[in-house]
Structures are given as C-alpha cells and as structure tokens.
Amino acid sequence: MARRRNRRKNLPPETATASIESLAHDGRGVAHLEGRAVFIAGALPGEEVVFEYTKKKKDIAEGRVTEVLKASDDRVEPGCQHYSICGGCSFQHLDPEKQILAKQNILIDQFKSIGKIENIELWPALTGPHWGYRHRARLGVKDVIKKGRVLVGFREKASSFLAEIEQCEVLHPSVGKRLMALSALIGELTIKNKIPQIEVSICDERTALVFRILEPLDVADEEKLIAFEESANVDIYTQSKGPDTIAPVSGEKPALSYQLPNDVTLYFGASDFVQVNVEINRKMINRALDVLNLNENDNVLDLFCGLGNFTLPMARVAGHVTGVEGSEELIQRAKANADKNGIDNASFYTANLMEEVADEPWTKQKYNKVLIDPPRLGAKEILHYLPKWGAEQILYISCNPSTLARDASVLVNELGYTLKKAGVMDMFPHTSHVESIALFEK
What we know:
Rossmann fold, seven-stranded mixed beta sheet, CATH 2.40.50.140, CATH 2.40.50.1070, alpha/beta, six-stranded mixed beta sheet
C-alpha cells in the first residue's frame, strides 16, 4: 500500500497577533498567549505585531515578526539590507541609544535577580562606532550549487544555513565590503567545496584572512590567492589542521599589532583571541586604569590575561603585575609582548583557572588589586582566593551578565565586598551581547 504523505509539511506557517510586553535578555520581544510566554525575534516592547511561530512547547514558544501593526517609537530602519535573514545581528531595528539602555536594564536585572544586589550605581556606557567595528570574525563558507555561487558570511537567523548576503555592515570594510569578491575567488578554486570557513583578524595596519582548507591547494589555486591578496591588500593564510598549521600563501608576513593605552603595542597571531572592537577595547583599558588608579606600590593580579591586553598597560604604572592564563601559547605570546614593549615588571603563568590552583606559586603572594576577565562561564572557582590575597579592589570584566551577577553575589553576600559601580560597554553594537564591567571593594 502506498505510504500516506505527511500533509503537515504542506500547511502554511502558523501565525498570530501579539502585544509585546517586555524585552528578553537575548533581545527578543516577550508576549503571553494561550498561557505561554512567547519570545518573538524582531519585536519591541509596546508594539503590536503579527508573528510566525518557529517553536511551540507547553509553557513557552518562539517566533519571528512578519508584520508590525503598531510600531514602537524606538524602532528604526535597519542599516543592513540583509538584516532580515542574517543572524549576525539581532538589534538593528532598535535605536542605538535604546540598545544601550536595554543592555543596562539587562545588567541591572541580572544583579537584582541572580546577585540579590540592589541600587546599582552605573558608569556612563562606553560606546563607539556602530558600523564597521568588527575586527575579528569567523565567516562560514559554502559552495551552494542551487544558488550558483559560494556563500561567504554568517548563518541565517535561527538556522544552520549560511545566509545569502553580499556585504556586512558591521565588519570592518576591508572584509565587509568584499564578501562577493571572496565568493568569486573561492568559486574559482579547485577545492571550493573544501573550504568551510575564513577567520578574519584586522589590526591597525593589516587585514589577515585564514582560509581553513580540508584538501591541499594546487599551484593554480595558490596563484589565485596570491593575486587576490595583492589586489585587495590583505594577508592570506591557510590552515589545514590545528593552529600550528597556519601558514602564509606567499612568504613571511609582518606581525599583526595594534596600539593600546600607555604606549603599549600588542602583537598577535592571525588566529589569536583579541577583542572584536578595537576602539571599545582601548576605552575599556583606559577605564580600568582610571578606576584602579595604579601606582608603584600596587601589586596587581590579572586573571585570564590572554596576550596581556590589560597586563601590559597596567604594568606601565603599577609596581608589578602578574598575568595568569590557561593557554600556554597565549602566555608565551604575552611574555614576548612584554619583551617587545620593554616591560620587565610583569610575570606570566599558565594555569587552569577553572580548577583548584592552591599549589601554584603565584597564589602564595599578596595582591592588593585584582582584574578578572573570564570567559562566559565566569570565575566562580577562583573567587574564594581573593580575601586570602588581600585584594582591596577587584575589577571584573564580563561578557556574560548572568555569570557576573552570580559571581557578584559571592563577592558581596559571602566574601564581604561592596559593588561600588558597574556599567556596560558596547563591544557588539546591534547584537544582544552585553559586555560589562564592575568594581568591587572591601
């Protein structure tokens, strides 16, 4: 007997009308329908919208706006023609100043609900350019036969498929305006379907593109890449396996670098972690220097120090700074950065800060000031050491307000510190990503 076809696949999408009550922490509008909380992408508080369900469960549902019936005064026209499909941004429909307010509200709410901390005094937000700010990115690459070209860019909203875009307005123009040129370049290569991604790293003077390749290039492929890097004034590298296989396609390249406050030049490799937004990074370091007010009597500990982004500018004015990081490779680069900058009052150690570190030699010292810049998971494993080290001031840099609030609760409610001030930094304009900074004192 013939198998019955699943007619549900042919049904039109289910739509509904909703009044948006608030903004969720990920930037989606929140409504309540049929006893469910519905999180709707592209909706703003105070709006009435028609939306399409993308997921439905017993207590919650998700959707995306298909029509705005009543618009918020804060709604603006997105600055990118691809905003409706590309998942790289989620806030372009919200006025940039209101984006900042939304992120401040998220931070305050997390301190209250998770940290149990009220009456937060805020610094003015650190802001910078809204467009062309991204100096670091990982672009997906896919040869799509049905579309007749190679796609280069970010994923579609709520999808694993690459979005079909021609340019990116938040990427630095040296790459953001060249997505179609990269598409054409890869389309001419013999291994066009064996290049899954391009890693972008842009410094003050140069643009580096690392092509991840799953098969070797032939001579003709190499010639095409070399011709492109010369015409576009970029540095092209290939990576066949791990980071140690990254190699330039045409001779040695000058080191990537950019300037930091206190006359520090930070040197880094094409795949090293550096901050996405160079201007905000500089402002962030200046705020740290201003808040900590370092002098020759300060012994400072910089946890999750990376390449020395904070360590080296602080060492210019502090008595001594100790940087600790989990990656031995980054620590070696941090040491090299100290040497190149003539800094001899900084020490660096490799340690997994997500585990017990009591036996590490650097934990035996006293530090009156500590800077913590952890990954999204936060720094809860290290917090109980702070009173033992004699930390009078703790400056916490966070890329996740939830874990910052969790750790703030430990610092304030268990370890006796006071949250003196906090603020947001617009490291990722037009996204719901909240970068923040908080000062704790004994």
